[in-house]
Design goal:
This protein is an alpha+beta fold and about 600 residues long. Among the domains are: about 170 residues, Alpha-Beta Complex (Dipeptide-binding Protein, domain 1), CATH 3.90.76; about 230 residues, Dipeptide-binding Protein, Domain 3 (Dipeptide-binding Protein, domain 3), CATH 3.10.105. The protein contains 21 helices and 20 strands. The strands form five sheets. Strands 11, 12, 13, 14, 15, 16, 17 and 18 form an eight-stranded mixed sheet that branches. It has a four-stranded mixed sheet with strand order 1-10-9-8. A four-stranded antiparallel sheet has the order 4-5-7-6, with helices on one face.
């Protein structure tokens, strides 16, 4: 079968609506969950994505061995495709996972009419894909730093020969039998098992699907999860439908005894077959006002209240009576995330490690008023950050205070003056120490909220007599450029996928350049601390190492960490069981829709 005939066959079968959008558009609604994303996705290949919005889709199509209990707080891991929790060796270097038999991939032409069972080799294959240079995986640096034995050598061989050998046996990841795989690390890693709940490194992926779709794999996700992709219009519309071949799976959870909301949800849904909804319709609405109005009009089932409307929807953190009268509910939680602006340390203007370059970055950070951002733009829905480590993750200390969270415009001006960033020609703007113009270029997007942040940044920098220009592009394009080191500055956020702060500490690890390390920060002392904390159990000794890593961020200032966001989710009464989990992204299967209540509304 030719590639063209293969793709035509896939479309004819309606396997993926990216090939057959009419099928999805005309499908009966049934129980449909509708949700608007504030930014575009990048695609749906677990090996190639690292953005939150793509991850929501990927995590509901592909299945990892473990998952989070949806209602348990604090977060609790439990089996998903695994028969039990991983067996972990006493030296914390070997992790053995047994997969349950009888789990099958959704039907796809790549399987040539056969029903394809999920096996251990599918997890081995996906983990190896992260190391394949062809896929440019942004999460490979994090996995590589875990030092899976033989994986780096396999990647180097591919770089040298131009071919990645997926059949090569390495000690670091191998299938012991049809349903058992094992991961071996060169160094102990007390928290590595938390990766087994993330569908990006550990989503079961069938090799024949990747080989069939090749470079189109981002548009053809084929997993074992409860949903399948049936339509995709890039940065506009994504439609998922219930996977008809999904196995029997039933609602169960362990909310805390004093969690009234969780206990209520469990009592209502316990024992129900999953998924409970038939269809998921995701729309990308970047502008806050139409996204909010879409919710108010009943076109979206839930929304994280846009910043501009928090005072109307949740004044003083309580649901507005006008919304409560319609049965709308508010869920307000601190998010395990950070928002930040990074400086590209390879850039000739803001980069480098010379004293005057460090002084420039520290001055910009000191001269930025985060409290003003929280008050005027975020309407109180955030707390100032003191470091790169977010709440609800290991190493977070609410009592920790640093210059990262300090605002002192006088000190900022003094730093600039001392290191030669002065106005030499009298035009009101500072020049660089060599007399050349000092002009910052900040990447941004075109939405109204982005324009508000741009105005705030310009106002703050004007007061320091520093000129700035804003370069507008779509969010996915900015993300690609950021990873390639092509942006000088960009403001964005990052959310935790587990309770380990390692992903955030990796923001400064040199091996994570091209992935989490947007700033392209390289310091041997930071790398040594990063490797050391990875091998340490949680506790006071690891906390002390993490404090030193926080201090190094203040010393070199590769990032200005802004704040940790407070999420205000409001939901219509016909949405049942929705409760934002701090780490899980696979929540579509845990919710239900009451069509009668929606019709009445």
């Amino acid at each position: 079968m030719s590639r063209r005939d293969f793709l035509r066959a896939a479309g004819a079968l309606g396997i993926t609506g990216a090939l057959d959008p009419a099928r999805a558009a005309d499908a009966p609604a049934g129980k449909t969950f509708r949700w608007a994303l504030p930014a575009g996705e990048t695609g749906f290949d677990p090996a190639q994505i690292n953005d939150l919005y793509s991850n929501y889709v990927v995590s509901n199509i592909f299945e990892s061995p473990l998952q989070y209990d949806y209602l348990a707080r604090p977060a609790l891991l439990k089996p998903r495709t695994a028969a039990a929790l991983p067996e972990i060796s006493s030296d914390l270097r070997t992790f053995t996972v047994r997969i349950r038999p009888g789990i099958y991939f959704q039907d796809d032409p790549a399987f040539k009419g056969k029903r394809r069972e999920l096996v251990a080799a599918d997890y081995v294959y996906q983990l190896k894909r992260l190391a394949d240079p062809r896929w440019k995986s942004p999460i490979y640096p994090g996995i590589a730093s875990a030092q899976l034995i033989g994986l780096a050598e396999l990647r180097k061989m591919a770089l040298d020969t131009g071919r990645f050998d997926y059949d090569a046996q390495i000690e670091g990841i191998r299938a012991l039998d049809r349903y058992t795989f094992q991961v071996k690390l060169a160094q102990p890693s007390p928290r590595f098992h938390e990766n087994f709940a993330d569908a990006r490194p550990f989503g079961g992926v069938a090799r024949e699907v990747v080989e069939a779709y090749a470079d189109d794999i981002m548009a053809h996700p084929v997993g074992t999860g409860p949903f399948r992709l049936v339509q995709w219009k890039r940065s506009s519309r994504i439609v998922l439908e219930r996977n008809p071949g999904f196995r029997d799976d039933f609602y169960d959870a362990r909310p805390a005894a004093d969690d009234a909301r969780g206990q209520q949800i469990l009592a209502r849904l316990k024992g129900r077959k999953l998924p409970m909804i038939d269809r998921v319709e995701l729309s990308v609405i970047e502008e806050s006002q139409p996204r909010w109005l879409s919710f108010l009009n009943g076109q979206q089932d839930t929304v994280n209240v846009p910043l501009e409307f928090i005072d109307l929807a949740a004044p003083n953190g309580r649901l507005a009576p006008s919304l409560a009268r319609h049965g709308i509910e508010l869920d307000r939680v601190i998010s395990p995330d950070i928002t930040f602006t990074y400086f590209n340390l390879d850039d000739p203007v803001v980069g480098g490690y010379a004293p005057e370059k460090v002084a420039l970055r520290r001055a910009i950070a000191l001269g930025y008023d985060v409290e003003e951002e929280i008050r005027l733009i975020r309407h109180g829905a955030a707390i100032p950050a003191q470091s790169q480590v977010p709440p609800l993750t290991s190493g977070y200390d609410p009592a920790f205070v640093s210059e990262m969270g300090e605002f002192d415009r006088a000190r900022a001006r003094a730093l600039l003056d001392t290191f030669g960033y002065v106005d030499r020609d009298g035009d009101g703007w500072r020049e660089r120490p060599d007399g050349s113009p000092l002009l910052l270029e900040m990447a941004t997007q075109a939405s109204q909220i982005d324009r508000a942040f741009n105005e705030l940044w310009k106002r703050q920098l004007d007061r320091l007599q520093i000129r700035v220009e804003f370069k507008v592009n779509q969010w996915p394009e900015n993300l690609k450029a950021a990873r390639a080191g092509k942006l000088m500055l960009w403001q964005l956020g990052n959310s935790a996928t587990n309770s380990d702060s390692d992903d955030f500490l990796a923001f400064g690890a040199s091996r994570a350049i091209g992935g989490q390390n947007f700033a392209r920060f390289r310091r041997p002392e930071y790398d040594r601390l990063y490797d050391r904390q990875r091998q340490m159990p949680d506790g006071p000794e690891r906390d002390a190492v993490i404090r030193e890593m926080k201090r190094l961020f203040v010393v070199w200032m590769p990032y200005k960490i802004h704040c940790h966001r407070i999420v205000n989710d409001v939901s219509h009464p016909w949405l049942i069981g929705f409760l934002r989990h701090p780490f899980a992204r696979d929540f579509f299967k845990w919710i239900d829709i009451d069509p009668a209540a929606r019709s009445r509304a």
